[in-house]
Design brief:
single chain, alpha/beta, Rossmann fold, two-stranded antiparallel ribbon
C-alpha cells in the first residue's frame, strides 16, 4: 500500500504544487481502464469490481421531442458498451427509487437530462459519487435551455462541478445561451487528440456557456480557441476534470457538456442522427476508458 499511496500523492502533487495547475502536462491513465485495472489489483479480497455502464436520465416521456434526445443518447451508449454491461435507468433521475446500488456497481455513469422535473434525492446520489468515487468515470449531458426545469438542472450540476474542481480554478458559471452552434474541438486542449478523428465538432444549441474554464480542460468551445492559447476560455461547451484533480484526488473523473440538444432529431436542420449521437458516444467512451488517458 505504500507504493499506491506514493502514486496517489505524486498524481495529486501535479495539480496542487505551489497552488496552481501544472500547465501543458497530460496525465496519462487518470480516467481510464488502466487505472481501474490497478485499482482492481489492490482491492480487498472479496470486494466486487465495478464493470457496468450505467445510463441515467430525466423522465422525458411526456414530451416526444425531448424523449427522442434521451433515446438517441441511450441507444448510442448502449452500442459502445461491452456486451452485458449496459444498465438502462432511463427516467431514473426523476424517480423515487434510489440509484445508489446501481451507481456502486458502475465503472461508467452516463447522465443525461433535458427539461422535465427530476428528484433532488437522485441528484444527491449522483453528486455523492462524483465527490467520493475515484474509480468512477462520469459523462454528463445536461441541457442548458431556459425551458421547464432545465435551468434548475444546469444550476445543480454546476454546483456539483464546483464542489470537485481544483481549488486553483475560479468558480465556474454556466449561462443559458439560446442559439444553435457547431462547437469546434479545442485544438489547444491536452486531450484534443483523443477526440479529433471521431468528433472534431458537435452541432448543438440552447446550451450552457461555461466560464472561466482553464483552456487545457475545455474540450469544446463556441469559437475556436486562438493560438497562443489564453489561460482560460469564457465560452466552453464541454469540459474535462481528470480524476487526480477531482475533489483533490478523492472524486470521479468527469467529462461534461452543458447541452443535450446534440442528440435531437431536428438539430442542424435534421439528418444528423444517428451519426452524431453515435460519434459522441464513441468519442467520449473511448476517452473515458483509454488506458493512455
Amino acid at each position: 500500500m505504500r507504493i499506491i499511496n506514493g502514486l496517489n500523492k505524486n498524481l495529486q502533487h501535479t495539480f496542487k504544487a505551489k497552488g496552481v495547475l501544472k500547465p501543458h502536462t497530460k496525465l496519462l491513465g487518470l480516467c481510464s481502464a488502466g487505472m481501474l485495472g490497478l485499482a482492481t489489483l489492490i482491492m480487498p479480497l472479496g470486494a466486487k469490481a465495478q464493470n457496468n455502464v450505467l445510463f441515467v436520465s430525466s423522465n422525458e416521456s411526456s414530451n416526444p421531442g425531448w424523449n427522442a434526445y434521451i433515446a438517441n443518447a441511450r441507444n448510442a451508449f448502449d452500442e459502445v458498451a461491452p456486451a452485458g454491461t449496459f444498465v438502462n435507468r432511463t427516467g431514473g433521475l426523476s424517480g423515487t427509487t434510489s440509484l445508489t446500488s446501481d451507481i456502486a456497481n458502475a465503472k461508467l455513469l452516463v447522465l443525461t437530462t433535458v427539461c422535465s422535473s427530476t428528484n433532488p434525492d437522485r441528484w444527491d446520489e449522483v453528486q455523492a459519487a462524483l465527490e467520493t468515487r475515484p474509480d468512477l468515470m462520469v459523462i454528463g449531458f445536461v441541457d442548458g435551455s431556459n425551458a421547464g426545469d432545465c435551468p434548475t438542472h444546469l444550476s445543480r450540476v454546476t454546483d456539483a462541478i464546483n464542489a470537485i474542481k481544483p481549488d486553483t480554478w475560479s468558480t465556474i458559471k454556466a449561462e443559458t445561451t439560446l442559439n444553435e452552434l457547431s462547437a469546434p474541438l479545442n485544438q489547444q486542449s491536452l486531450y484534443a487528440s483523443t477526440f479529433q478523428s471521431v468528433l472534431p465538432s458537435i452541432v448543438g444549441g440552447w446550451w450552457g456557456r461555461m466560464s472561466p474554464i482553464p483552456t487545457d480542460y475545455a474540450l469544446y468551445t463556441q469559437v475556436a480557441v486562438a493560438s497562443p492559447a489564453p489561460p482560460t476560455v469564457s465560452d466552453a461547451y464541454g469540459l474535462f476534470i481528470p480524476q487526480a484533480a477531482s475533489n483533490a484526488g478523492k472524486g470521479a473523473c468527469l467529462f461534461f457538456v452543458a447541452d443535450t440538444s446534440q442528440f435531437s432529431n431536428t438539430i442542424g436542420g435534421g439528418g444528423l442522427q444517428p451519426t452524431q449521437s453515435n460519434n459522441i458516444a464513441k468519442a467520449f467512451y473511448a476517452a473515458a476508458t483509454d488506458p493512455a488517458g
